[in-house]
Amino acid sequence: MIRFIAMRLLQTIPVVWVIITATFFMIRFVPGGPFTAERAVTPEIMRNLEAHYGLNRPLYRQYLDYCGSILRGDLGPSFKYPTRTVNEIIAEKLPVSAELGALSLCVALGLGLPLGVLAAVKRNTWIDYVCSSFAMVGICIPTFVMGPLLILLFAIRLGWFNASGWYGPIDRVLPSVTLGMVYAAYVARLTRGGMLEVLSQDYIRTARAKGASEARIILKHALRGGLTPVVSFLGPAIAGVVTGSFVIETIFQIPGIGREFVNSAFNRDYTLVLGTVVLYAGFIIGMNLVVDVVQVWMNPKLKFE
Amino acid sequence: MKTDETERGHSLWSDAWHRLRSNRLAILGGVLLILLAVACAGGPLFSQSYEEQNLDLGAVPPCAQHWLGTDTLGRDLLARILYGGRISIMVGLVATFVALAIGVTYGAVAGFIGGKVDAVMMRIVDILYALPFAIFVILLMVFFGRNIFLLFFAIGAVEWLTMARIVRGQVMSIKRMEFIEAARALGLGRRRIIFKHLIPNALGPVIVYTTLTIPAVMLLEAFLSFLGLGVQAPMSSWGVLIKDGSEKMEEYWWLLVFPGALFSTTLFSLNFLGDGLRDALDVRASKD
Amino acid sequence: MMIPRLPRLAALLGALALLAGCAKTDPASAEAAHGRRPQVLRYGNTNEPQDIDPQVVQGTPEDHVIKALFEGLLTADPKDLHPIPGLARSWEVSRDGLTYTFHLRENLRWSDGSPITTDDFLLSWKRMISPRLASEYAYLIYNFVAGAKDYYDGRITDFSKVGFKATGPLTLQVTLINRTPYLLSIIANHYAWNIVPIKVLLRYGALDERSTPWTRLGNFVGNGPFMLKEWIPQERIVVVRNPQYWDAASVKLDEIDFFPTEDLAAEERMFRAGQLDRTQEIPISKIDAYKHEHPELLHIDPYLGIYFYRCNVTRPPLNDKRVRRALALGIDRESLIRNVTRGDERPAYAVSYPGDAGYTPRARLTGTLDDARRLLEEAGYPGGAGLAPIQLLYNTQANNKQIAEAIQEMWRKNLGVASELINQEWKVYLDSQHTHSFQMERAAWVADYPDPHVFLEIWETGNGNNDTLWSNAEYDRLLHSALSAKDDATRYEIYQRLDAILVDELPVIPIFYYTRPYLMSPKIRGYWPNPLDNHPFKDIYLED
């Protein structure tokens, strides 16, 4: 296993390099730049601005300089907020999104796993229908509908919460519930599907025949195999939820990094786009590695390759 | 011993069809979907215009003249929902199909072959995950203009990734099972094993994830219309209707509730049908 | 047994968290003053400010924070925005209008206690027109001050040749190229002429170095009625009263909290939940609800801007001014405002803003739908036949879409003209505009300072904000002559002729003049509506 992990970490380097290069050139070819504004800037001022940011140098030179600074761990100053560095912005906002993501995951797993398992075990009974339907609420009602609904009800009508902001522990509740419900739906449905695959297999029948209790069968034997699709899904899902949700952060005015992913692209903030992309890439690669390891651990028949 | 009827091998698919037919909830789901599709395809021929405005009327709740009410420009909501349904259903189905076709094949091949090929293929998936989607779409529009096929491509291009990973996971856990070993022992070619034996048995979670992808695609289309790709005003789609309705839900509740209700109905129907399909294709479940 | 423990643990943690944070924390961070309750204004500020250095920013959110932290030579009267003394207690203008002399107050100080000297003024203005700084508003100095453009272009390198001089320890003299009647208006309303703390700046970089850390919390020094206390990006900026401000005694607010409320709907919810005292705007769909149920909270002030459709006059059929006129007449502006925008805007039949610094255009777009149809026929498109669909571009935003849809339908029903709506994301839309790759687009122009010149100067041939590719030699000539007019009356007559040309040629189709609908708590006093949305914070206070 150590060898496997080491090999994967080694493969990370070319992957990240390709991502950085592709993104770097992609954002340069998109129309509009960081200084494109409604009030047109005069050509002289534009020349000076570009000189200050080094945008008047040949593109390959800018690219090489950027690669050099990345190797030093310096993601550069933001174009949109020039007195802040990208490192700083990420360091301030990532913990916020990560906290929101972790809490949402707790909601998602805490709600989705039991609902999915129950639905699978009691397949095609009314318990199954209720559990499945309840789980689906998260997808039926998109976040940009559920968020404002919850705020209107609990914050404005009942006054239990702030309408927005991320000041105290109580402000964590509404956003993480809203975000968690969506993932809960996926978790529940995928768990149910995966469990059904496994529950009908021979080794389960054997365990039953041997007299094992239903609970023991589910928890000791079925879950490991049944959770395979959920685990596959959770890899990129965790990376996504930890790097923040643009919609949730906008509705609840949360100072997280999720907003910056989208806003930096719309602002053509070159360095922040690259910084967030690198960050997200790191999470994706890391989580996919974890998922692969977990899947081998869960299914003894698999081997590291 | 009778000669014709005994030991006639039942193919996987005919077994599945039989089982599906007896699952009432799945049939209900399928029927609802067909009704919706028919309503969206044919309904607009009989309903009012979806684009005719009545500015002085503005947004009114359901009434005799407008069964589902009107939007802020005085356009009949029922007509707009039916018209929008055409777009959403088409986008949902086509884009998901694209994602499915690419994702399933890719994931199955990677999972089955394993080793270095799998490593390269999955690293490519990692790379595509990380690229910024909004920028990618804007670039596509710069190079290819704005047309509907680009919409399918853009959506499909991002949805196949998770599908591939799920399929790969499934295939990797199935491929060591006895029936695959048996197929290999029989000398069956790789392509046949992948397409005739592996994929059908990995389909369960794929079907479930597909039924989850279609609504996600419909909402993603609303984000893409924000970027300028997708339906042109005055045409609309369910995603856009829901998004617009959510901004006005306190004042004009019908603008959110009706498109949302149809959207949810589609979702539930898809899920029941999907569950039915999944059950029907599950070879092992039937033996009890 | 791993799985069941996880939900239980999560539930326990959740319950603890709820108990611990049970009281809603009030985002205002003011400590209770002894006896008197603290006066804290909570202000919705749309976007996170890019920076608070007045010489490198361009936007309105930055403007609001800068107005709290800085003051210039002049400030604006809260009721009608006319220039009143700021750091300068008095001033004189020479007879020919080319020399301004400002007399500073005594004992002016920065918020760190150090004295404000004439050097601060001279070096700030030098910084503003330093090419290396690349300030976007440098033209608000170099268009007017003698020698400034030469200095900016590098033709002269000696700053003493530029028209700024200190003729005494408290006296400044500014020499202009032309008589510029609105100069005082610019100085009073716009931050381009603000000064910055030179000694503090120089600690962090050269004078003309851009984006040094001098504006960060802890380094920052200002001279306005408030000083910076807290800055959490994307969460809030807190400013508190500045005891070093020369007029600190008349400042009534203790603190202002600026919140970057990007999302309009979220901002309205914050206001309703009692977290904000004033929003920047309000979602259109809520205007009627507030008009009926809480009219005391809703304010609709005129706003010095115009919403129009810009034509690319080189692209047929828009190169024919009869077609442009027909399209302009085919819009029912009253219906649009009454039913779609709902903000009590004023329909626009000319380009200049009526009542802007006392100027109202007499020219007016007049005509009926029949006239419009006749024009189309004359142009060769009877009943709209033969006309390729007009491609109408707009940036993605709910309001623009509704307006475009309504106008599309008006053209179709009234004129038989088909159009195609194209929406683009903001920067792509701007790029299309500046590269002239559009046929007709939605546009807006908002004034930086109250003077009719603002709305007319952009239509000059080749102006960076023209983008219509329309060029009219007579217009250019008249525009230039306005700058050397001997008094305002003469100048305004020239503007009347310019407006007449615009209404005749219609390179742009005016639609409506903006208003600003927003929500404000009735506790706010010392606040008067004005079309620039400029409300000096030193006059504002809260009272139940």
Percentage of residues assigned to helices of chain B: over 70%
Low-confidence stretches of chain B: none
Shape of chain C: globular
Largest interface between protein chains, with number of residues from each side = A-C, 64 and 67 residues
Percent of residues in helices of chain C: 25-40%
Work out the oligomeric state of the chains in this entry.
heterotrimer
Instruction: Return the string of H and E elements of chain B.
Output: HHHHHHHHHH
Number of helices, where a helix is a run of at least 4 consecutive DSSP H or I residues of chain C? 17
Major beta-sheet overview of chain B: none
The main sheet of chain C orders its strands as 12-16-11-15-13-14
How much of the sequence lies in strands of chain B comes to: under 5%
- Distance N terminus to C terminus of chain B? 26 Å
Spell out the blueprint of helices and strands:
The complex is a heterotrimer of chains A (305), B (288) and C (544).
Chain A: H1 2-29, H2 43-53, H3 59-71, H4 86-121, H5 126-140, H6 143-157, H7 173-199, H8 202-209, H9 214-226, H10 228-242, H11 246-251, H12 258-267, H13 270-298
Helix pairs in contact in A: 1-13, 4-5, 4-7, 4-10, 5-7, 6-7, 7-9, 7-10, 10-13, 12-13
Chain B: H1 12-21, H2 24-46, H3 77-113, H4 115-130, H5 133-144, H6 148-174, H7 178-185, H8 190-227, H9 238-247, H10 254-281
Helix pairs in contact in B: 1-10, 2-3, 2-10, 3-4, 3-6, 3-8, 4-6, 6-8, 8-9, 8-10, 9-10
Chain C: H1 2-20, E1 40-44, H2 60-69, E2 74-76, E3 83-85, E4 88-93, E5 99-104, H3 118-128, H4 139-142, H5 148-153, E6 164-168, E7 171-175, H6 183-189, H7 198-202, E8 226-232, E9 236-241, E10 255-259, H8 264-272, H9 284-293, E11 298-311, H10 321-329, H11 333-341, E12 346-347, H12 369-379, E13 390-395, H13 398-415, E14 419-424, H14 426-434, E15 440-446, H15 453-456, H16 473-483, H17 488-505, E16 508-519, E17 524-525, E18 541-542
Parallel strand pairs in C: 1-10, 13-14, 13-15
Antiparallel strand pairs in C: 2-3, 4-5, 5-7, 6-7, 8-9, 9-10, 11-15, 11-16, 12-16, 17-18
Helix pairs in contact in C: 10-12, 16-17
